[in-house]
Task: structure prediction
Amino acid sequence: AQTVTQSQPEMSVQEAETVTLSCTYDTSESDYYLFWYKQPPSRQMILVIRQEAYKQQNATENRFSVNFQKAAKSFSLKISDSQLGDAAMYFCAYTDSWGKLQFGAGTQVVVTP
Amino acid sequence: EAQVTQNPRYLITVTGKKLTVTCSQNMNHEYMSWYRQDPGLGLRQIYYSMNVEVTDKGDVPEGYKVSRKEKRNFPLILESPSPNQTSLYFCASSFISSGITGELFFGEGSRLTVL
Result:
C-alpha cells in the first residue's frame, strides 16, 4: 500500500521569505504522479503543482517549485517570496495509474507580515 | 463554467437515517472520486470511478455506497449513517490520459454531521 507522509503539521514564514514543505511517500510503482494541493479557509482544494515520476526535471509554477528526489521518494514544495494569500493548508498527494489517490495529513502554512 | 457541484453543502442528520450526497460535473470527465477529510488525517479516498458502471473501493469504503450510471453524476450513499461518518466530504473529477495525469477538479465540500 502506498503512504504519503507530511511530517510538519505547521510551518511559519514571513512575507517575502521562502518556506519549504516536506513530503515523503512509499510506493513500489515506477509510474506515478505527485501533486501539491492548497486548501485556504474557504475549503476549496486548489492544485498548486504536479510532477510526473518519469520526468527528471522538477516542476515549477511561478513562485512554487518542487524538489523531486525519486530514489529517496521525496517531494518537497518550495514557496518563494511568500505572500499573505499563501496562508493555507497544503496537502501532498500521490496517485498511480489505477486511480487510487492518497493524500498526506497536511501542513498548515502561516504567513506573518 | 466548468465545475463540480455537490449537494447538500451542509447537513445534520441522525444515526441510521439514509442519506445521499450528490455530485455532478459538467466537464465530461471519465474519472470521479469521493474523499473524506478529517483533522490530522488529510483526505482519504472512499470510492472512485474510472468510467460509467466502473467503480472501485478507496481506502475507507466501509459504510458507503456509490453508483455511476451516468458519466456526469457520482452520488455517495450512506445507507445507515453513524457518528463516525461525521466529516467533510469532497467529490472530484478529472480526465484520464494514460493514468490520472490531469488536474483534479474538486467540489466545494459537504459538511456532514451525524448525531
Remarks:
- Chain A touches chain B through 26 residues (CB under 8 Å).
